[in-house]
Amino acid sequence: MSNRLFQGIVHQMRDTIERTIGVVDESSVIIACSELGKIGEVNEFVRLANVSSTELFTASDYTFKAFGSRPKAEYAVFVAGTDEDAAKYAKILAVSLDNIKQYYDEKYDRGNFIKNVILDNILPGDIYLKSHELHFDSDVSRVCMLIKITNKNDISAYDVLQNLFPDKNKDFIVNINENDIALVKEIKSNIDEKDIAKLASSIVDTLSSEFYTHCTVGIGTVVDNIKDLARSFKEAQVALEVGKVFDTEKSISNYNNLGIARLIYQLPTTLCEMFLKEVFKRGPIDSLDHETLFTIQRFFENNLNVSETSRKLFVHRNTLVYRLEKIKKITGLDLREFEDAIIFKVALMVKKYLSNNPAKF
């Protein structure tokens, strides 16, 4: 990174200074130079280990100024000549390159730091020390989102997201793996949950409509402290997993809105199987045909209202009552009764969970 960065600055300043200028590293290798042919050469006159980063020095008709982390210098700029102008140019170059290097290093370290925090790869006691070192505001409100790319093309979703959230001091885009990208977004402490959902929706819409890349988004809870980011990220993961099982038509899942689905998802499969056997003693849920299950779904969607459901299904009210009686005969549950309806609704969700997840004993 530093080599390309330094060469870009040297190239821009070459015409202004009108002298040979460049940078050597701690191994005395020229890593950037206005004369491209010199890059890669060893400058035998410079040994950074013996150079104070606060003083200029001259060697072989060049003026040098070391820079980098103190007390040991990492690099030195050089300017052709040993006159006052050469000294002035060397000082200006050293200050400029040092500041730019610190900015880019801090930016890179911040990204790695956030990745280690959300993946829980850093000790809690080290989080505050590192955040202070990186001048990172640890006590602001943030939320984690996990974007899972479900189909890919030649467009880099990571680059698109970087452009969508350009403020690298507040928002962080982190590559988790080939298909998963995390967004750590700084937000106002009193932000409405609907605004966070709108933000997630804008990500889905932008990737889909402009770049033909489809994705799903899991949203964790808002946290007010950097040490809680790992929890928000895990919640975003759970939201995606639960959404994949129970809300396959939705592209956005919010951990705060998972409801009973989150509870079922955390249950061991053996317990779920026992529950289904206890509920359906007369006959298994598999004995219900597709039309019956569709009727049940619509009945739930219309708040157990027989008249409204029959109207939506375009069937006579008596036909719907007949179907409900048939369900009662098979399962022993009268869906017109609130308690039985709750049991049946949970049972349907448990069945869906068992059909979509590996065994968790």
Distance between the termini: 48 Å
Strand order of the largest sheet: 2-1-5-4-3
The major β-sheet equals: 5 strands, antiparallel
Low-confidence stretches at least 5 residues in length (pLDDT < 50)? none
Instruction: Classify the helix fraction into a percent range.
Output: 40-55%
Radius of gyration: 31 Å
Average pLDDT, rounded to a whole number, is: 87
Number of helices: 12
Principal-axis shape: elongated
Q: What letter string, H or E per element, gives the SSE order? A: HEEEEEHHEHEEHEHEHHHHHH
How many strands appear in the DSSP assignment? 10
β-sheet strand percentage = 5-15%
| Class derived from helix and strand content | alpha+beta
